[in-house]
Amino acid sequence: MDAQLLLDLAARYGTPLYVYDGDLVRQRYRDLFTFIPYPGLKIHYAMKANYNPALLSLLRDAGAALDTVSPAEVLMALKLGFPKDRIIFTANNLTDAETAEVHALGVLMNIGSLSRLRKFAAAFPGSRVCLRFNPDVVDGDSINTMTGGDLTKFGILLEKVEEVKAIVAAGNLKVVGLHEHTGSGLQHAESVYQAMKNLMAIATPENFPDLEFLDFGGGFKVPYRPDEKRIDYVSMGAEITRLFEAFCRDYGRPLGLYFEPGKFMVAEAGVLLVEVNTIKHNRTRTIAGCNAGFPQLIRPVFYQAYHHIANLSNPDGPLSVYDVCGNICETGDRFAEQRELPEIREGDILAIENAGAYCYSMGGVYNLRPMPAEVVVADHRARLVRPALNSAELVDAILGECHF
Ligand code: LLP
To answer: Model-level pTM?
Structure first.
């Protein structure tokens, strides 16, 4: 987004402030249909990445479906007008009550453990269901978000197919989809192909005669560092299409091809604008202290993730090295450590980039600092979608829901 526009928004709405480029989100959604030219492609945006209602509404109008992971996500999706057949529910370690709640809403359940499948078959015999398998491929941009392989809690092991079939038969379930999700920020195109092949290998008409789709999860990576190469999604999409068409020929009919991207759709569309209020020289380090902290954007602290930072107020200043720190009472509260940036002065506005995915949605109010407001820019218009609470409003909100 244009630096002057961001500075204007910071002046108009104050900082810290999340700004999202809604046009880019819509473009990313459309891009996937260009990259993967398979007629039965369906994109279930992983709304956990960013559940801003204006962005969700844009995607709803563009025709997108949703991947949801909690009853509240399902309820929000339905309230925003997503039809239930455009929602898939992929939670893990569900309670019976949550399962019943979502099933009653008519949303397709994606089940990832034999234990839950048995309980589901007993409670809701004859239902349609999707089954999540562990793809047995390990990839991702953080050890915490790799979901394939032995060390994770996700999915049913591929070798358990016979047990699955027995449960399905006993409950007269109709398995309409198979699913896998390998991880977030997949580093190698080969991992996507291998995970597809592993799932397709068990997706035979003998094992699962009622399939309507295969869902290969999310994980499409976007660059976070300036020198990071963008994946060639045109050639990846062509290979995905080739593999899936060959699979459908073997299966005997064309099936739906589903993906569930989160980061790919929204990461690059967001920035967090913060204002530097304190410059401090600590012998070997220069610290630029900002008016937000890790509860408002946790990825650098939580995943040691790199987020590029631009000094919007002084882009041509002489370069210097900074620790860009937040306002929370912990030493680890840094957005960047020893980062070279154009000279930062008190009052400068910094843009923390790639803040569209898993930033606001993973936020909290630790130290009782309110979450930033959110602005969406789309169709040549900037809209304040969610104002920030001020400190008094935050306190009232917390005390208002307590009994003591
Ligand atoms: N489908 C399933 C079943 C998932 O668990 C996820 C992400 C996605 C799709 C979307 O993955 P994506 O396309 O966004 O990589 N908080 C972490 C990422 C957690 C991803 C969790 N599951 C981060 O900030 O890197």
So the answer is: 0.97
